[in-house]
Amino acid sequence: MAQPISTKLLLPGLSLFVFETPEQASVWVADQMVPLINSSKPPVLGLATGSTPIKLYAELIKRYKEGQISFKRTTTFNLDEYAIEHSHPLSYHSFMDTNLFNHVDIPRESINVPNGSLLLKENNDQEVEEHCKSYELKIASHGGLDLQILGIGRTGHIGFNEPGSDEKTKTRKIEIHTVTRQDAIREFGSIDLVPKTSITMGVSTILGAKRVILLAFGSSKAPIISQLLSEERLTTPSPQIPASYLFGHSNVQIVLDRQAAEQLEKE
Ligand code: PGA
What is the C-alpha to C-alpha distance for residues 223 and 194, in angstroms, rounded to an integer? Predict the structure, then answer.
């Protein structure tokens, strides 16, 4: 069992867990997910991409291979997708296949990722809007998300809900913030190659999940984590830090490694 080095109840329903390493944090989150994935009710998972959840997905693959879990009855909904072809190696479709779906027994038809390729066509606003509405309806038709896994961007985004996104936002097209695009140079190699827009679940879509686990690892996340967990934000969520709307939810765990927690005030 992975043990946190500290835990704290920040608000009713909002807990903070700090682990020594991202590996230990990921094992703990996988431990949280096993009963849900194995529960008698078919599970509905909201999944995230980015570097943060890779170790969690590796841990879930390990548990699948050990026979602890099966994804046969699981339905997944990913948070977001770039304006990109599915087959592009840096699409989130490709990311999910590489880091999770190709290694477990989830039926292809149970996988849902927003169709960012619709953004590549010109004058296509109506089709995009219809797709976003049907994504929301499909989540609702499965009884909503049982658990949403989140990372956080340095802008305070969850999904691609960049600053300015409020708690009423639903699945939609959004411009990606410059800071987020700069962070993606890591993968795309140059700013010109980073997509400018994406389709993302909204903040309200995320808040509709029954449980939310937000992960943040590494010292690059320490400044936004300290702003997010400031006294001011905990009492007054703001569209400037869309992740702060999670504080209105009744079942949220924020899971950090020591580095991401390094700017939090010590008691
Ligand atoms: P990262 O991205 O996991 O690659 O740091 C997280 C996010 O932008 O939500």
Answer: 24
